[in-house]
Amino acid sequence: MQKIILLTGGGDLPTEVIKTLKKKKITFYSIAFKNNPISKEILKYENNIINFGNVVTELKKLKLLGFHYVLMIGNLQRPNLREIKPDINAISLIPQLTRILLRGGDNNLLNFVSNQLKKFGFKLLDLKKLIPELFLGKGNQTKIKFFDKKKQDIKKGKLILNSLSKFDVGQSIILQNGTVIGIEAAQGTDELIKTQVFY
């Protein structure tokens, strides 16, 4: 049975993932980060809340205990260099991390973390494959029928997001009758929906 390290952030996703892993009797250990949102569900089970600068040391300890898989879930705030406080195992990564943070973009940071985890010998898990029941299938998932005008909005939105993706902007978009009323940036999907709901 695989033993999984959960690198967790805020939002509802960590809670749902933990509940599902418990049902499936999969062993997991949660790592959360100081100065970041922490799901209450995490605190019910084995966990450690650490500075970003201690994560390498924590991962090495867990690897010795037979944890070889990593799943990254939830939203995190981009770390402030002053808050990282790297220990002896992380200090060598600071120059690279600094360049990544200065360059900006969530994808750059995510790729950096993913590559480092692989170098440490961990296997990154795909949440969609591990727990497919948490995801919607393709097509219309509502009882509302899409008319031609709505289908045009969908096509336009997809075209815009595809164009923006190379700039690491726009994970989601909201259109209404052909007009773009919101594109996700740093605020996240939930906040985008909340601020545009009155249009």
Describe this structure in words.
The protein has 199 residues and is an alpha/beta fold. The protein folds into 2 domains: 3-133, Rossmann fold; 138-196, no CATH class. Helices cover 39% and strands 17% of the residues. A 5-stranded parallel β-sheet has the order 3-2-1-4-5, with helices on both faces. A two-stranded antiparallel ribbon has the order 6-7. α1 links the parallel β1 (3-8) and β2.
Low-confidence stretches: none
Strand order of the largest sheet: 3-2-1-4-5
The ordered H/E elements are EHEEHEHHHEHHEEH
How many structural domains are formed by the residues? 2
Tell me what the CATH architecture of the largest domain is: 3-Layer(aba) Sandwich
Structure annotation, total helices? 8
Secondary structure: number of strands = 7
Largest sheet report: 5 strands, parallel
- Beta content: 15-25%
- Rg is 19 Å
The N- to C-terminal Cα distance equals 49 Å
Overall, the morphology is globular
The share of residues in helices is 25-40%
Structural class: alpha/beta
CATH C-level class of the largest domain: Alpha Beta
Q: What is the fold named in CATH at topology level of the largest domain?
A: Rossmann fold
Give the overall pLDDT as a whole number.
Answer: 86
Which features would summarize this protein structure in a list?
5-stranded parallel beta sheet; 199 residues; Rossmann fold; alpha/beta
Task: Tell me briefly what this model is.
With 199 residues, this protein is α/β, with parallel strands linked by helices.
Task: Summarize the topology.
Layout: E1 3-8, H1 13-23, E2 27-33, E3 47-50, H2 55-64, E4 69-73, H3 81-84, H4 94-103, H5 106-119, E5 123-124, H6 127-130, H7 148-164, E6 173-176, E7 179-183, H8 189-196
Parallel strand pairs: 1-2, 1-4, 2-3, 4-5
Antiparallel strand pairs: 6-7
